[in-house]
Amino acid sequence: MLVANETGATAPAYAKADNPRCKSAMTRMPVTSCPRQTNFRPMPIASSSPDTRTHTVIVVGAGFAGVGAAIGLRQAGIDFLMLEKASEPGGVWRENTYPDCACDIPSSFYSYSFAPNPRWSRMFARQEEIKGYCDSTVATFGLLPHLRLNCEMNKASWNEAEKLWHLDTSQGLLRARFVVMACGPMHVPVMPDIPGLDTFQGQSFHSARWRHDIDLQGKRVAVIGSGASAIQFVPAIAPQVAQLTLFQRTAPWVLPKMDFKISVAWQERFTRFPWLQSLLRTALYLQFETLNFSLKFPRAIARLQIAGLKNIARGIKDPTLRQKVTPNFSLGCKRILQSNTWYKTLAQPTVQVFSGIARIEGNRLVSSHGERCEADIIIWGTGFEVAEPPAAQAIFGLSGRALSTHWKGSASAYLGTLLEDCPNLFMMCGPNLYAFSSAFVMIEAQVKFILAAIRSTEAKAHASISVAPAAHQGYNQTVQLALMKTVWNSGCSSYFIDRNGNNSTNWPWTTFYMRWRLARLRSGDFTKG
């Protein structure tokens, strides 16, 4: 059975807002309480006439950040519409389907605190299971009636006269008082400009756009990059290929991954006694909080590096190869990776490790040290645009300039959420909020801040809320000063550092402090119109 939703679209009956099993609440609600929706169909617009309504809030993006914001808005009784450019939600877990794609945060911690999943099959869930959790959460909390699929935002412009945001989308013009940008920083792949790339005669693709139609069996494969994606898919494809050549500019720190299957018996215990999983989540939170805090101290970093060096020694016996894969920077300066199979794979006779790619000559790839190999297929494991979010090019604020122009290469925001020159616009997972912890800690803290800001604006009958320039500048100066003393600013080249040399990515303090700061609106830091 299908029911009409408030956007004029249709949705499965179980997603209807008054379904008693799908009442929205920030209290604990297992995601298994509603049927899992794994095949989302585009919701057709019932009428071709323009949407002339003014929505209270439009959420852009239906990954975990957007879904979290939508749940908070629905629970608060605030009118909203959620846009998704694709035909189904899921964000980064919809886009990335490469072999052995998995999370590097334990499953019980990589989930909403109010929507536990007692049926995780592994300590670190795989992509398919995480995507399923996202789908189930959308259904469980009754978000489908608010979700408009295949609707890509091309431009967002602030209209000062109307005190509204105008969103130019693939389905026409939309208007809203508030906008929550939940596009996420990891959805636009980075494709390096390599001399001679146009001469390559084989097939190539980015790991985030995995070509499942290409058979790797018996092929000569070159992998460019050794980041978080590569350390997962390289061990998975190495047994299939005739020769695998890894081109890496910098060897990463890779710690052992404490991964294992969660037995059915323990899944039953988590289902019957939710406090057990809650206790596990708390323990994991404290563990990651300790890791974040310890990265401020050289002695603690040194102990972690010993664990990394032991991981290398367990997997690789050849001293020359060991030297190639031993990092030349402090652990934590780049993203910390985890794998139990990475080094064992690099030690296989069909795998070779070269320095960074320098140029391509037909089907021959040449490294920066002059090493050469022939390849039939190139897989780019070169990551995403993180320091300069692509969405900034499509946001035009009070000044009429693109946010990317305003930033000039160094992204900044007040508490990573409110943007200067952008009234009534909030950015999820914004600048300087990244920490070595679960993204859900940040998401839930931001949602509380956003709801408080919207309620405060409406309660006092104001049309808009903006961060005061002095507050924005003072906050970001404090952040950059604090980052100068951290391992993230210790000199290595990473996506944490933008093209101006600023760290526009990391949060320099604990996530406990992040939650505390985002839980409080300081009235003097805002201007209201």
What does this structure look like?
This protein is of the alpha/beta class and about 525 residues long. It folds into two domains: about 325 residues, 3-Layer(bba) Sandwich (FAD/NAD(P)-binding domain); about 140 residues, FAD/NAD(P)-binding domain. Helices cover about 30% and strands about 15% of the residues. The protein has 13 helices and 22 strands. Strands 3, 4, 5, 6, 7, 8, 19 and 20 form an eight-stranded mixed sheet that branches. A five-stranded parallel sheet has the order 9-18-10-11-14. It has a three-stranded antiparallel sheet with strand order 15-16-17, with no helix packed on it. α1 runs parallel beside α11. The longest helix is centred in the middle third of the chain and has 21 residues. The protein is globular, with a radius of gyration of 24 Å.
